[in-house]
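Example with several molecule types.
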Amino acid sequence: MSAPATLGEGIRSGKGLARRILVIYTACFMVYTLLPIAVMIAFSFNNSPSGRVSLKWLGFTTRWYSHAFAIEDLTGALLHSLEVAFASMIVSVVLATPLAIALARYRFRGKSASDIVIFADIAAPAVVVGASLLSLFLTLNLPRGLLTILIAHVAFGVAFAVVVIRARVSVLDRSLDRAAADLGATPWVAFWTVTFPLILPGIVGAGLLAFALSIDDLIITSFVAGQTLTFPLWVYGAVKTGIPPQVFVLSTLIFLGGAIIALINSIVAHRNGG
Amino acid sequence: MSEARPHRRLGRGAAPFLLGLPSWLYLAAFFVVPLVAMLSMSLATGNPLTGYVFSWHFAEFGHAIGRYQDQLVRSFWYGALSTFITLVITYPVAYWIAFYGGRHKASLLFLILLPFFVSFVIRTLAWQFILSDQGLVLGTLKSAGLLPRSFYVLSTSTAVIGGLVYNSVAYYVLPLYVALEKVDRRVVQAAGDLYASPASAFWRVVLPLSAPGIFAGFLLVFVTNVGDFVNAAVLGGPGTNMVGNVIQYNFFNSQDYPMAAALSSILMFLLIVAIYLYARVFGAETIQDYAA
Amino acid sequence: MSDEKKTNSGYRLDDPAIVRGLTQSRFTRRNVLGAGAMGMAAMALPRFARAASPAPLSGQWADWWKKQKPTKELVFANWPYYIDVTDKGDHPSLDAFTKKTGIKVKYLEVIQDNASFYAKIAPVLKAGQSIGNDIIVITNGWLLTEILMQDFAVPLWQEKVPNFFKNASPSVINPAYDPGNKHTMTWQSGITGIAYNPKLTGREITSFDDLWDPKFAGHVGMMSDLYELGSAAMLKLGIEPTKSTPDDWKKAAAALKEQKDKGIVRQYYDQSYITALENGDTWISQAWSGDVFQAHAKGFKDLKFIVPEQGGMIWHDNMLIPKGAANPLSALEWMNYYYTPEAAGTIEDYVNYICPVPSAQAYIKDVIKDAAVADSPLVFPSQEMLSKVHDFYVFKSYDDNKAWTDTFGPIVQG
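Resulting structure tokens for the full complex:
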């Protein structure tokens, strides 16, 4: 993918200025996207009394870090979020991959109906999805909790996953597949040795998207959670009375975790690509 | 997949159905069936005490539009405007990363995704912090005498649209990047060699070639933003409520489920119409292949 | 403690005027008696004497209670920041309870506002299922009325809660929204008035009219709670909320619309109004008494709370046992424990609303040695403040309530 990049360079000397402006612009953009995060991290060190975040700077402290997991409910809510997001990622991808392949490679009756349902699922306002699921769960006498949250998250995760994976499958060269078949591979072997490695980036992307959508969902979850709280639900509820610094502390830790992964990823990419 | 594949031998006709079956069953049970329940709820009459009974009562749709037309119009306006702004500010970034990111592409993309390791609710709250009347930005400008004391940004439509934009940037950068990454640099170069100034090469070659990313991102961001209520709730003011806010109000405050269901159905319907028109204008293939 | 928490229309069966009169004398009496008051219930007016001793159980619920076996568990669903908590996240009052009774408490901060919590539990209770909680806390108002009307609450076995009858403030005994405390016992009460920052307003605030002052345009906080919002407008117009008619509501709504159209209102806030005040986004706002005190503790000493000259509104948050509770006897045990000066004092010292146990004042002063809380006119309100409070309008039916929400709803939802 990075091969053509070099070809695009040095088109014209006049482009140098435009490129410099672009660099500065991109840097400003990064500052803009990271500004709220910087504020959050800074205020996780704010020495605010009575355990609530305040806008006033009241002195530096690492006290909230030593009590990062002090609020049991909050820690529990975070664990719930992680569990659900992980499970939702796996289930969405497992359900979505076969359908994505079918949609990308076959013409069949019901294909457009399938498309419509998937688009409707993506286009459905979250409030509608949440409320309609709740009425279903009540009718089924299914007690609300982690399972119902998972069911709801997969209900939207699967649609997004199908779209992402399908996009990947549809750009694949089918001749590779056929070549494998010609060489005597069973469809089973051809899939795992040829198709799967090629669509894997799509699957990983779909999984990450499902994970991200799940862990950040507030609206749908609020309908189907019952008494179980996820991290966003807990925070949104606590906003009204002032959030404890632990919210910022835990978010900062997660953020740093992400940053470290990014760093490792970049190093690995360097080695491979360099 | 793994189980369905071998059956291809039995006949090609069955394969797609077997492949699609798990997802179809799932979506039927947990998306379609609940939606039908929702639609029937919008036709019900009653109150929270007596419960609601299905009754082909279409009048609720009229009430919903009559009472909440402002919020409906506002949602689509905010949604479209915020999506357009997002496109404009993210395009140069995606362009730069795709064309000049070189070996740092992955890291740069990760940097853009980095804020998304922090929950949406917290990021929106952080903006509330930053834009507060006496906060980092306004407070400083006010004490420098550059702004009147009573000036404010929070609680205005500017703040809500700003929040919607901020929360959408990563969702737009990615499809744009994917599309731009696919643009063959030799084509761009050829344009330059043949006749075009850098500007016209961009407008006539790069931009059209990145269209699938523009359309896909627009769809994703627009739909999300039209249905949002958190930005309006956290950053908005007395005249910025969106349809999501009033749906939520009718579910959780007045418990007027038929009204909430009717509003939801109207919103769904309008979005489906918008997407359909969108697909007609820009081609369904682009959406199907590149959405998300 | 959010937008709907203070949804406060009492469920009055009596003539509101009588109730108002009695409310005032009850408060007066409490303040005269002060902190040392014991046996206050016995000194309450005769009308309340009936409720001042536990009523025996009768009927099917007697059989039901007798069948219950003591358990060592309790699931308590409450609002965030509504109980004492340490930096480590412990709740000393709950720990002391566990130590004393052996009952382990699962304390959940799951109630963010009355309406949305009710919206979640109502379908479950309607289906005859358990919501998994043994105690929930709901504000007096239409939703509490709905809960009681639909028999979603288990009648209390009052003989198991002697401390309530010994120690409770007369202001929470036999409330009109739950005659005889058949189903509920108050957790906290509070007053709705006005909070402001004198540095930003530039002058003292005395009246609801100040919320309409164009000088504060863009910096006036109003509540999104329709009952609070409408009541404040009526008090400004000199209308007594309990006696108001739908025509009065329309007048109040017109005043509110004018206030909004002139750009005076910054936002219709839920519980987050206090953050807006602290941050200086709003200079003046409708406010609940406890929050201002907690804001002081957070370091926002500038904020002031007043009961305007037209008076403030008073509300009560109540504990009740939802149907299907697995540990009802533990719930009663907790209620009985809560109504001691020690437990109520420990909790009150943290939450700073209006304490339902008057003798906790002495405990906070002498044992916890926190004079700031014990002497606070916001936690143990002054006589002057309490003589000015109004009750909320009492809805007679669902349609009555709907007429109110239809009148005031469009203002907030614009």
